Amino acid sequence: AQSVTQPDIHITVSEGASLELRCNYSYGATPYLFWYVQSPGQGLQLLLKYFSGDTLVQGIKGFEAEFKRSQSSFNLRKPSVHWSDAAEYFCAFSGAGSYQLTFGKGTKLSVIP
Amino acid sequence: GAVVSQHPSWVICKSGTSVKIECRSLDFQATTMFWYRQFPKQSLMLMATSNEGSKATYEQGVEKDKFLINHASLTLSTLTVTSAHPEDSSFYICSARGLPKAGAGDEQFFGPGTRLTVL
């Protein structure tokens, strides 16, 4: 079955610390992969996406993610977290050529000042 | 980036009434719009895919007679929750996909969501 797993429901980090949010997918081929951030009262905002090519993808707000085919993973990273990064983060994928997104359950990020 | 709006942002209604939620793409033409439902602390679940000028395609388990979707123009889609009940209370989110750019893959732009509470 096609699915996305975000193993961590809630992560708390100190401001300035590094961050890694995990995402694993189950799909028969190489999917298109996305990370979105959802803040209260705002729509989901696309942080970055991977379609093909370089497996290390740079996104907005200093985020990056690395596609690892052997591990079926697409983990999101940031070297230094800011208090404004506190939000819900969703990993999602779609099949190549498809536009239907399948979302993970999300990881809530809390940032300690 | 492209902007998608939803109206209303929140609504409270009595059980048995119908509620209409609008989704608009403000600065681009949306050939396809999607409606999602999000329960507290849960992921977004795709309800239906709406293409302009044609009938919506509903996901398995979603009642098309209860969740009426109309994609009347390239900038507007509406979701009507008919005869709403407390179990329909949820956060409804729309997204819009514009005309694809060659080699750019597909991207959806999300609205801010509508919080529906049915009493």
Q: Topology of this structure?
A:
The complex is a heterodimer of chains A (113) and B (119).
Chain A: E1 3-5, E2 10-14, E3 19-21, E4 24-26, E5 32-38, E6 45-50, E7 56-58, E8 64-68, E9 73-78, E10 87-94, E11 102-103, E12 107-112
Parallel strand pairs in A: 2-12
Antiparallel strand pairs in A: 1-4, 3-9, 5-6, 5-10, 7-8, 8-9, 10-11, 10-12
Chain B: E1 4-7, E2 10-13, E3 19-25, E4 30-38, E5 44-51, E6 57-58, E7 67-73, E8 76-81, E9 90-98, E10 108-110, E11 114-118
Parallel strand pairs in B: 2-11
Antiparallel strand pairs in B: 1-3, 3-8, 4-5, 4-9, 5-6, 7-8, 9-10, 9-11
Structure in words:
The complex is a heterodimer of chains A (113) and B (119). By secondary structure, chain A is mainly beta. In chain A, 0% of the residues lie in helices and 50% in strands. In chain A, a hairpin with a 5-residue loop joins strand 7 and strand 8. In chain B, a hairpin with a 2-residue loop joins strand 7 (67-73) and strand 8. The model of chain B has no long low-confidence stretch (mean pLDDT 89). The A-B interface holds A 9, 32, 36, 41-46, 49, 51, 90, 94, 98-106 and B 1, 4, 9, 32, 34, 41-46, 49, 93, 95, 97, 105-113.
Biggest chain pair contact, residues each?
A-B, 22 and 24 residues
- Assembly state: heterodimer
Structural class of chain A: mainly beta
Radius of gyration of chain A: 13 Å
Q: How many helices of chain A does DSSP assign? A: 0
What percentage of the residues of chain B does DSSP assign to strands (E)? over 45%
Mean pLDDT of chain B: 89
Largest sheet of chain A, in brief, is: 6 strands, mixed
Q: How many strands in all of chain B?
A: 11
Strand content of chain A: over 45%
Query: What is the mean pLDDT of chain A?
Result: 92
Helical element count of chain B? 0
User: SSE order of chain B, as H and E?
Assistant: EEEEEEEEEEE
Helix content of chain A: under 10%
Q: Compute the number of strand runs of chain A.
A: 12
The SSE string of chain A, one letter per element, is EEEEEEEEEEEE
